[in-house]
Prior knowledge:
With 176 residues, the chain is mainly α. It has helices at residues 2-15, 33-46, 63-72, 86-97, 153-174; strands spanning 21-25, 99-103.
Amino acid sequence: MGIPAFQLSGDAAVLTKTQRLTALLDFCPNLPDLAVLDYLQDRMMHGSPDEPVLHLLTGILQEKLARFLQNELGMDADTPVHRLSTQDLASLAETVKGYRLTVTGTKSFKDAQVTRGGVPADELVEGTLESSKVPNLWFAGELLNVDGACGGYNLHFAWGSGILAAKEIAQRAENI
Ligand SMILES: Cc1cc2nc3c(=O)[nH]c(=O)nc-3n(C[C@H](O)[C@H](O)[C@H](O)COP(=O)(O)OP(=O)(O)OC[C@H]3O[C@@H](n4cnc5c(N)ncnc54)[C@H](O)[C@@H]3O)c2cc1C
């Protein structure tokens, strides 16, 4: 959950200011909805009727997550499988494929890994990192309104733009 939440948080920070946001989490994106239900029915039919409901999700979801989802549905993960109704099973499959979360906002600046906002790229002299408003002022990294996905892109941009700005400054100094 960590990285996907990070990826969405930039947009969430902006969108939650003006609208109610819901995230729909699919914990089995590679399986169609009915395949999850088939899988659960199959486990139920071929397993022991006394095994705990939790075991139905073993192998497809991490145990803590399986317990959490079953708890959300008002199911006790430790009750025997034979107590589940057809409707319970369908609800479980539905929740695995589409658990709804209300997004209320993001954590504070103190917890942020990257900021959204800063000097707009169109306020730079084209093809350089120099301000078009204040000559001899260069920007790099997070001072610019540029943010990237997780995966090293923000560090890469910070280093790349820092090197570029430094080269431009050195070149300007040489020409003085
Ligand atoms: C916990 C965490 C984890 C991260 N993990 C990743 C990751 O895995 N991959 C990735 O790509 N990005 C990651 N990032 C984001 C990445 O680190 C930043 O995008 C990048 O460091 C921005 O570089 P920067 O030079 O623009 O700013 P900064 O790295 O913030 O550098 C700004 C510098 O300016 C100094 N400074 C501030 N005010 C003044 C002042 N008035 N005078 C002099 N100096 C001043 C600060 O002390 C700081 O050293 C992470 C960020 C955090 C916080």
